[in-house]
Each structure stands twice: as C-alpha cells, then as structure tokens.
Amino acid sequence: xxxxxxxxxxxxxxxxxxxxxxxxxxxxxxxxxxxxxxxxxxxxxxxxxxxxxxxxxxxxxxxxxxxxxxxxxxxxxxxxxxxxxxxxxxxxxxxxxxxxxxxxxxxxxxxxxxxxxxxxxxxxxxxxxxxxxxxxxxxxxxxxxxxxxxxxxxxxxxxxxxxxxxxxxxxxxxxxxxxxxxxxxxxxxxxxxxxxxxxxxxxxxxxxxxxxxxxxxxxxxxxxxxxxxxxxxxxxxxxxxxxxxxxxxxxxxxxxxxxxxxxxxxxxxxxxxxxxxxxxxxxxxxxxxxxxxxxxxxxxxxxxxxxxxxxxxxxxxxxxxxxxxxxxxxxxxxxxxxxxxxxxxxxxxxxxxxxxxxxxxxxxxxxxxxxxxxxxxxxxxxxxxxxxxxxxxxxxxxxxxxxxxxxxxxxxxxxxxxxxxxxxxxxxxxxxxxxxxxxxxxxxxxxxxxxxxxxxxxxxxxxxxxxxxxxxxxxxxxxxxxxxxxxxxxxxxxxxxxxxxxxxxxxxxxxxxxxxxxxxxxxxxxxxxxxxxxxxxxxxxxxxxxxxxxxxxxxxxxxxxxxxxxxxxxxxxxxxxxxxxxxxxxxxxxxxxxxxxxxxxxxxxxxxxxxxxxxxxxxxxxxxx
Length: 625
Description:
With 625 residues, the protein is mainly β.
C-alpha cells in the first residue's frame, strides 16, 4: 500500500467517524436556516432572486461567507471553490492564473458566474468566466447553486456561482484593513480596504496586487484589481447602490520544450452597475438595476525554436449593457417576483498572426427576458414554481421552468427537491462554427434533484442530494478541434456534513459521485469531459478565541478518470492555514498567518507540461484599523 493510498483511506475514515468525535451540539447548529445555507439575509443585492431562508430553497446550494474565506487565506474565488463539495477545480497552479472547473459534472462553460448580478462569462471565449481573476477581499459571501437554475438566472445549465460583495461598514465613518503576504517564487499578495457610513451615505473601497514569478515554469502572474461601492439608504427603507469593478491580469499559461511551444494570456474587466431597491407598499417593493462595461482577453502561442516567436495571437473584446426591473410581492413564505430584463453584448474576435478562415467575428447578441418566480407555504410544505422566457436575436428562443418543494418532516429534518428544464448558450466563437455563422441551437438540460437535510443525528449536520441530469446539444471539441453535438447523462450523489465543536475542533466534509455517460454509446465520459468520478473533501478546523488562534487543515481527493496516455489523474491534496491574533481580545488585533499548500507535494496533470503547483509556503500579516 502506498502512502497516498493510506492517506486516502484515513481521510475517508475520518469523514465516516466524524459524527462520533463530538460531545455536544452548539445552539446555532440546531437552526437549519442559519447554519445550512445562510440565504436569509435582508441586505439589498442586485441579483434576480429573492433572499429567503434555507427551508424555502429547493435547489442544492452551498454558501461560503467572508469569515470562512479568511480562514483559508484565499487569494481568489478559485481557492475557495476548491473546498466546496460538488464543485471541482481541475488543478490549482499559481494564484491568479487560469483554472478550469465544473459543478456536478458540468464544465465551466455551462456555469454562470456573477458579481452583484453582473455576468462575468466571456460570450466569445467558450462562455468562460475567469474565477482565478476574481479577488476575495471584496466578497461578503459566495452562493454556489449546484444544478440548472435557468428559470431564475437564464443561461446556467450547470449551475451558478453568485458572488455578493461587501456592503459599507455601519456605525463608523471609517474602518479598514491592510494585508500583505509573500511566498515561493516571489508570490506576493498586497491588498487593502476601507469602509464606512456617514448618515445615510456609505462607501466601500478595496484594491490590491497579486504577483508571482510562477510556481511552475511559464505560469507567472501580474494581477491588479480595484473595486468601489457607494450606497445610499432611503428613509423609508430603500437603498441605492453604485459600484465599479476593474481587474487587469497578465499571465503565463504553460510551456513545453518537448512539444516546442509556450503560451501566455491576458484578461481585462471593467464593470459597473447601479441598483435600487425601493418599497412601494408594506408587501410590495421595486427592484431596478442597470449594468455595463467591457471585458477583453488574449491568448498567444509561440515556438521556442528555430527562434522564439509567436504564431497565434487570438483576441476577444466584448462591450455589454443590461437593464432589469422587477416587482416583489409578499414575503419569504408566500410571495411572487416578476421581472423583465434586456441585455446587449457586442462581440469582436480577431486572430492577429495566423490567417484562419472565418476566425474574425463581429456580432451583436441581444436578449429580451421575462420571468416569474414564486413561493407558497402551507404548513410544513412549501411549493416553489418558476418560469422564464428568453428571446435572442441570433439564437433559438429559450423557455425555462422549474417546480420545487420543501417539506419540514420534523423540527430538525427537511426534505427538498426540484425538477427543472434549462439551457446554456452555444459557443459564439470560431470554435463553435465552421462557416463563421453563430450556431442557433441552445445547449439544454432536464434535471431532477431530491434529498434531505437534517440535524437529527446527534452532533451532526448532514445534507444529501441525488441528481439525475439529461443534457443534449452539448458542444464538445475533440483533440483534433472538431466540434461535436453530444447527448449525455449525468447521475450521482452530492453529500455535505459538519460536526459540532469539541474543545475548539470541528470536522466538515463532503463526497460527490458523478456517473457521466454518452447517451448514444453508453460509454463513460472521462474527467476531462465531466469532472472527477469520485471526489472527497474534508476540513479539520481548530479555533481558540482565548489565545486568538485559528487553523484549518483541508483535504481534497479526486479521481479524474483520464484516458490521456501518461496522465496522473488521481490525487490527494492537503493544505494547512494558520492565523494568530496578536491581541486575542481585540476585534481589530493585528494578525499573522501562514499557509502550506500541497503538503504532500502531490502530482496531478492531464499533460505533463500543465501540472498542479508543487508544495509551497506563504507568510503574511493583516492590520485592521
């Protein structure tokens, strides 16, 4: 038995035995609404769904808040997503670099990523969102919806990563934080924030720089970011928010002398939005928002010999604007939300070096949408229907629907489930077409998910969800860059659990099994097409408020089932994060922290020139004022 196999077995045993490792359940663990999903907050955010308690959420949702993110010493959303059961990052390299990811077997091109309701997906670049270029400092919480949610969100066949940013600090004119860290190969993360409220006007500002010479060859990063938000609270309880988000990342991607190539990339984001929530009556409110901006990306590939020179330089630029208004009636138990939305995206794609027929694209994609979502609660049963219609100028119209329900079986056990029909947009790029025309057929899905969430077992919170997805018109590209439209099935189970605290120690974890197959042949899909077949995640957290010490040991096992010759596709990653307050009794105490990532120096790659980052150390400090 190898060391890696032994560690995997120990990790699985630890997860199974975790309910026995505790002696009492904290009071807040008995509150399913608070401890489960955390979606019952009342803050105004520009997202197309209404905040409601976890007992009224039919979908499979995981929420990570700012405190959990801080304990991980995370740099970007990619670091956070790696710890979420049911979601999987293919591999982590240098912080700030490009990562691929999936949710329950659906690849990143089918996952909608939003920041305060502003989409981050590049329409012209495989509908891909660079989560490695989203810094965590500005984030209040991340909601991961694991499964299609088109009835509320539109194009989201595989799920939604919904990022909500921090609101201005209340009851103080100014407070803030400065943070700095340094690690292997000059991997440096500098960031700061300042926030406050004066009477009815609040502000939040943050900025930073993430830099590295690269934890692996040709994987360097130079990432600058800034975010600002102004809020104004109306006397009648409404709120207006104006925000701007700017990010600029240059990075090396990979290199191979054996195959004589190198590649680099660039991503730029400049986004802004204005949103208003305004009460019209006791049970009626208006939401309106406008958003706009531009995003651009570049991909350069070159040779080392006979002399170093690029031979591909692909660029894409998108300029977009969107407007949405909605009425909310009722409350979380019985309510309706009806809205309309318009979005326009101008797409420009160019190849600057290699003459490729039909590569250059100039298109304008417009979308008109209307949606209606509701909640009706009768005793222990809540029914949650929803419908949405999207009309595109270049694509087929989309009609999405969902019907969900939750049932409070006992005071500490909840049943939930939903059936949905949804879609994702096709590839609007040269990869998605051989004749320069945009393919009009949508990629579509039918899903049924059902499960249980409970604290009935002493000292343990447990959530189990079964899922059965049927997808068709899925665009896949083989190794010869030939586009196929496939029909697939994805079935499996997604589990999460968390224990209560014993002497400051708490265990949490999850297991996801995905059986993904080609519907026509019955052949099992590889991990490169559908994510890992088996994935186990766990964390051991220790928190001692008396001495101001917090530590988190995370574990991530995945079996990617890769058929690529020479691939190393099964791995267990262990990371350790430790934070120490210098004045344990003060909320504004300076903090020192360090992280050891990939403790086992595990190897994981599909191709040897694109491996996971080796073991590396990082040290830093935070100063609050």
